[in-house]
Automatic annotation (TrEMBL):
UniProt-listed Pfam families: STAS
UniProt-listed SUPFAM superfamilies: SpoIIaa-like
InterPro entries: Anti-sigma_ant, STAS_dom, STAS_dom_sf
Coiled coil: none
Segments forming domain STAS: 3-112
Keyword Phosphoprotein among record annotations: yes
Name of the protein this chain belongs to: Anti-sigma factor antagonist
Biological role stated in the UniProt entry: Positive regulator of sigma-B activity. Non-phosphorylated RsbV binds to RsbW, preventing its association with sigma-B. When phosphorylated, releases RsbW, which is then free to complex with and inactivate sigma-B.
Source organism (scientific name): Streptomyces prasinopilosus
Family: Belongs to the anti-sigma-factor antagonist family.
Presence of keyword Phosphoprotein: yes
Alphabetized GO MF terms: anti-sigma factor antagonist activity
Sorted UniProt keywords: Phosphoprotein
């Protein structure tokens, strides 16, 4: 399966909508998108993962790398995810302590954590 990406701006947040599978084959596409956004000055990102069917360790690495990149500019990276199979991966790896995870884009945009 392929990876679909789209972006939009809501206030000072940039929403990255992701669909499909984030794996060893598709993760570089997401990495490129996140790097490009930060290089263009978008330091407050919301990654909407509601359309993600699968996430592997390479995908997790890309998200952690994106978080490090925005934090270097005192930014933030919030995730939107409400699928139990994806949330379980974040719980097992302990990344729920690293990423703010929200149930909707609106909630993530409004959050001040």
């Amino acid at each position: 399966m392929d990876l679909s990406l789209s972006t939009e701006t809501m206030g000072d947040r940039t929403i990255v909508r992701v669909g499909g599978e984030i794996d060893v084959y598709t993760a570089p596409k997401l990495r490129e998108q996140l790097v490009e956004l930060v290089n263009d000055g978008s330091f407050h990102l919301v990654v909407d993962m509601e359309g993600v069917d699968f996430l592997d360790s390479t995908g997790l690495g890309v998200l952690v790398g994106g978080l490090k990149r925005v934090r270097a500019h005192e930014g933030s990276l919030r995730l939107v995810c409400n699928q139990e199979c994806i949330l379980k991966i974040f719980r097992i790896t302990g990344l729920t302590k690293v990423f703010p995870i929200h149930t909707s884009v609106e909630e993530a945009v409004a959050a001040t954590d």
